[in-house]
Design brief:
alpha+beta, 6-stranded mixed sheet
């Protein structure tokens, strides 16, 4: 394909480690949050500055993070928020009771983390320069699908 497609609206989502690593590398397709959001679309999965030490003891996470270097303050994956539903029981081993479950699909881990110092726990607008640096690690089909960008 030639030319460029209109860039899709992209948000950043800061996720504490080891949750971010489990999204990127271990099939964690639910992100648990107190606040529901109406946004559906592409998110850069940004590993935050802090580590949830208690979560490292959760059996599915413990199996994933053993031996992994947990990147912090960096984008490590791109995904799409496809849906959100209130707690309806354990929809996956990753879902937590009492939280809204954001369903992630089309998760694509980056080959190399893209450093980015600032994030926030809610959704945020990543600078165009950060999206461009992430784009460099995506093949053309993935970039078109998730970012609305062609080579």
């Amino acid at each position: 394909m030639t030319g460029t497609a209109e860039p899709r609206e992209v948000r950043g989502l800061t996720v504490r480690q080891p949750h971010a690593a489990c999204i990127a590398y271990a099939g964690k397709t639910i992100e648990n949050r107190v606040q529901p959001w109406s946004y559906r679309g592409t998110v850069l999965i940004h590993a935050g500055a802090s580590i949830d030490k208690a979560a490292k003891k959760h059996p599915p996470m413990a199996a994933v993070v053993r031996g992994l270097q947990l990147e912090q303050r960096a984008v490590i994956a791109v995904a799409r928020i496809a849906d959100c539903h209130a707690d309806d029981g354990e929809c996956t081993p990753w879902s937590l009771p009492g939280y809204n479950h954001f369903v992630l699909d089309d998760v694509t881990a980056l080959h190399l983390p893209v450093p980015h110092q600032e994030g926030q726990l809610g959704l945020w607008f990543p600078p165009a320069e950060l999206v461009a640096r992430v784009r460099l690690q995506l093949d053309d089909d993935t970039a078109a699908r998730l970012l609305g960008q062609e080579a």
